[in-house]
Amino acid sequence: MRNILSAVRQGVRISLQNIKSNKMRTFLTTLGIIIGVMAVIALITIVNGVIGSVMGQFSSLGAGTLSVTITGSSLKKGLTESDLQELGALDNVAGLSPSVSVTAPVARTGKTLDSAQIQGRSEYYFQNEDRISYGRALTRTDVEEESYVCIIDQDLAENLFPGENPVGQQLFIGAVRYTVVGLLGEDDNLMAAMSLSGSDSDGTVLIPYTNAMKLSGSGSITSLDVYVADTDRTEQLIDDTEAVLYRIFNENDDCYFVFSMDSLLDTMDSMMSMLTYMLAGIASIALLVGGIGIMNMMLTSVSERRQEIGLRKAMGATPGRIQLQFLLESLVLSLIGGFVGVILGLLVSWAAAVALGTEFVISGSAVGLGVGFSAAVGIIFGWMPARRASRLNPIDALRSE
User: Fold this and answer.
1) In terms of C-beta density within 10 A (0-12 exposed, 13-18 middle, 19 or more buried), how is residue 291 classed?
2) Where are the alpha helices (DSSP H) in 357-393?
3) Cα–Cα distance list, 31 to 38, 292, 399 (Å)
4) Per-residue pLDDT reduced to its tens digit, 15-44
């Protein structure tokens, strides 16, 4: 064991001496490894940052909730209050938030917005996240008593109350006077969803869904969010919800649709993982090209150092020692390129994260993959030249010019 460690130390020392004596050739040889590792690190890190940003946006649109859409039938158009109570009584349901949407003019003294989005919601809509940037959320009392209170988003506040604090102010929805009690945050998922759908309304007003039902002239609910208490049992809740709806709509499963954002996130996560592996595979092609460059340089080195090899064999060096020497030299070359590639890859990733506005997170797996792959390339592509050097006949090698 001690002899092996001594041989390795000596081999590394000789390798570094040979690398220093041929700096330009070393740089050109390791360039392929540097580019390959840099590409692997940069692509994986950038893609992971973009994935994290995209997944975060989709999560804010409803992770931990079930979206129920009612298409209805000629006999039953939507859900009644008793139907909502039955759904709300299911195990693992934290709450329900019916959604009623209508476009209506919104006005205050001297100014009118013709295309504001009116969203009817329950108190549970504000339960899971801190959606309100100022003021208060809707309460159960507001919903049950059909209070004339509302919450507005940033766009409507700028359009209707420019330069003013909207909380406590009054506005008219149709001919009904409402008091503004809260202001939505800029990152609220309702506005994000409207942005994704391409809506260009003058803003959004949230009112109790009981009021919105009267405003829309509808006596039933056709859309609601079911908040999940334990996300590990989401699939079971989907089955239970569909079973209740199946019975409510007289065993007609074409009248409703239950969708889980969590299932979409799982699918997207799988797709993004496949994309990451594919990009890493493509970037690894550069590492293979760099490995070929190392093999070519090592073969050249074996030819140039035939007399050195012959002399060492004549002095008692075993073929194994000769093979280890050239294998270590190939490995050191590859690792030097790998470490330089890691540094450059992280710098490129950081610059890309700043430019794209995504989070920069160093991926340990990407760094490990880059360094491990470069080491593997050094061993694999250095094996044949090392093997050739170990098989040289010492007499023939000493005779060479």
Assistant:
1) buried
2) 364-390
3) 10, 12, 35
4) 666 667 677 777 777 787 888 888 888 887
Q: Give the helix/strand (H/E) hosting 391.
A: none
Q: What is the pLDDT of residue 97?
A: 85
Structure tokens at 133: 């940037």
Give the residues across from 226 on adjacent strands. 66, 96
Report the mean per-residue pLDDT for the chain.
Answer: 79
Q: Distance (Å, rounded) from C-alpha 368 to C-alpha 40?
A: 10
Per-residue pLDDT tens digits for 44-85: 788 777 777 766 655 555 557 888 889 888 788 888 888 888
User: How far is it, in rounded angstroms, from Cα 116 to Cα 194?
Assistant: 12
Using CA atoms of 219, 220, 222, 228 in order, give the dihedral in degrees to the nearest 10.
140
Span 184-218, pLDDT tens digits? 887 554 444 444 344 456 789 999 999 998 888 87
Q: Indicate the DSSP class of residue 360.
A: -
Backbone angles phi and psi of 71, in degrees to 5: -90, -25
| The token pair that represents 328 in the structure block | 């270590």
The residue type found at 3 is N
Q: How confident is the model over 296-311, as pLDDT tens digits? A: 777 777 777 777 777 7
CB-count exposure of residue 168 (10 Å: 0-12, 13-18, 19+)? exposed
Please give the model's pTM, rounded to 2 decimal places. 0.55
| Rounded Cα–Cα distance for residues 158 and 150 (Å) | 16
Give dist(CA 331, CA 321) in Å, integer: 15
Residue whose C-alpha is closest to residue 43's, from 344, 357, 390, 378: 344
- Give the span between the Cα atoms of 129 and 40, in whole angstroms: 37
Q: CA 396, CA 145: separation in Å to the nearest integer?
A: 103
Q: How far apart are CA 103 and CA 399, in angstroms?
A: 94
Exposed/middle/buried for residue 175 (C-beta within 10 Å: 0-12, 13-18, 19+): exposed
Q: What do you get for the CA distance between the two ends of the chain, in Å?
A: 37
**Distance of alpha carbon 103 from alpha carbon 327, whole angstroms:** 74
Q: Does residue 224 contact residue 84 with C-beta atoms inside 8 Å? A: yes
CA dihedral in degrees (328, 329, 335, 336; nearest 10)? 150
What six digits make up the tokens of 245?
């709806």
